Amino acid sequence: MLKEFKNKLLERKLNNINILIEENRKLQEIEKDDIKLYKLKKKACEYSRKQKKIKDDIWWLNLPKEERNNQDTNLSFYKLDSNNYLLVLLVTAIELYYLIVLLSMMERSFYVGIVILFNIGVLLFLFTCAIKIRAYKKVFSYLIIGYGAYCLLRFAVLPFMMNVDLYNGSSKMWQIIICLIISSVISICSGYSSILKCNRQIKYINDGKIILKNLSR
């Protein structure tokens, strides 16, 4: 009952849009002013987009439930990988906090500028990885795992470089260590998860299971 009501409502909208498109077409034929003609053409584009969307809604509404579930699965493989994207952005925020704490512990010298420039590069690298992982770029999944391994290396080397006893170090030193551990774990987990998603998407495409639909959604 509800489905029939929605169908009638959508068909009525579609008829109204078709009427507007036809009226717009007639006005374009008689209009001589360039500015008004441009506005009419712009309006025609808006009508065409609405018409396409309504047709898609009607198609989706009348699709059998089983096929609709299959289409949901197909379309999900084209959605952005938001979860791993947010995880890598979290790692970026942790890296920024790590840099702030590290600089507060360092003596003012020439090396401070080098550390700042290097870590700015790391932040840009992490942000790039986040963008690319969201778009299922597999190579950046491996790169973020490499960054996780790099964090473990920093965790092992940093106390010796700063001549700090790990067990008797200051609270700031422990903050740095915790940041490195959390960054390493999150980076490796998000990279591994992203690789699995990329492999699953590639297999799904190669099996020919995805049906491309020119939807206006």
Would you give an account of this structure?
This protein is mainly α and 217 residues long. The chain has two domains: 61 residues; 125 residues, no CATH class. Helix content is 82%, strand content 0%. It has seven helices and no strands. It is elongated, with a radius of gyration of 28 Å.
List keywords for this structure.
mainly alpha, 217 residues, disordered C terminus
Please outline the helices and strands.
Elements: H1 2-30, H2 34-61, H3 65-76, H4 82-105, H5 110-134, H6 138-161, H7 171-206
Helix pairs in contact: 1-2, 4-5, 4-7, 5-6, 6-7
How many distinct helices?
7
Low-confidence stretches: 211-217
What is the H/E string?
HHHHHHH
Helix/strand/pairing category: mainly alpha
Radius of gyration: 28 Å
Helix content: over 70%
The shape, in one word, is elongated
Provide the domain count. Answer: 2
- What profile does the largest beta sheet have? none
N/C terminus separation: 25 Å
Instruction: Report the β-strand fraction as a percent range.
Output: under 5%
Number of strands: 0
What is the mean predicted local confidence, pLDDT?
A: 81
